[in-house]
Amino acid sequence: MTARFDIAALGExxxxxxxxxxxxxxxRLFEQNPGGAPANMLAAAARLxxxxxxIGKVGDDMHGRFLRDTLTAAGIDVTGLxxxxxxxTTLAFVALDDRGExxxxxxxxxxxxxxxRSDELPAPLLSSARVLHVGSLSLTDEPARSATFAAxxxxxxxxxxxxxxxxxxxxxxxxxAAAAAQMRSMVPYADVMKLSDEETLLLxxxxxxxxxxxxxxxxxxxxxxxTLGERGALVAVAGGMQTVPAFASDPVDTTGAGDGFxxxxxxxxxxxxxxxxxxxxxxxxxxxxxxxxxxxLCITRRGGIPAMPALGDVQxxxxx
Length: 320
Prior knowledge:
There is one protein chain. This protein is an alpha/beta fold. Helices cover 33% and strands 26% of the residues. It has ten helices and 13 strands. Strands 5-4-1-8-9-10-11-12-13 form a nine-stranded mixed sheet, sandwiched between helices. A hairpin with a 5-residue loop joins strand 11 (223-227) and strand 12. Helix 8 packs antiparallel against helix 9 and helix 9 packs across helix 10 (311-318). It is globular, with a radius of gyration of 18 Å.
């Protein structure tokens, strides 16, 4: 069967209300930005030319309809997006410090993204995507947790590559032990995986990126990328590992940086037309260079989805 989509992603789609300074009265202002890690990643991949589709749930409210229209405008298929009148679209309030780093407060008790059911999954989409990407925020609560595993199992049976980004948000878990247990439960399904250097200990029990990557490879993940912030990214496959330096950038807002990295990485992996198990160290490093370039451009603009760069801009940066 010919793939209908290059990348489908399941997970949270929400509003990032991002710190935008103070009003004339001295009150904090927040700017409405579309976000959610899986959606951000798809936006990056779509801007680079991939055929993308989103699976998830939002409220049938002003925010949910805005998010649906935003995905459509970004070239992301929304046939797998459920608009529900029974729950409210998830909101995240994002404060930025002087370095552009983020601090989160969520309105999600429950949020629509946690309420996706297995019977709402789009079977034709899952059976025709080259890659299915998931995160860990859909593992925090039922019924979305069961729906996530059902989607992964269906896509894997159909031959899709399973991509996983843990994307730890402490405020959304009852405690660290619960987060570690649920986040680790997806690792055995993953073919290719991204995590940050701040998540290595939680996901593997090893703080050092190199040892964490070794442990994930030993669990069956074929290709691991550990993002290292300003230092770039470490990539690891069965044939070895390599650190790929970041591109110099002047950050305005780091929202979506990791998602942009992963969109660029998966785009290059699909362009190489290799399964994760067939990637050499040089291949993985090539993918990470694309990811680093995408992230470097993303953080020069505000927001997540709106900040993702065009293919020509990424190519130009790669040639510098």
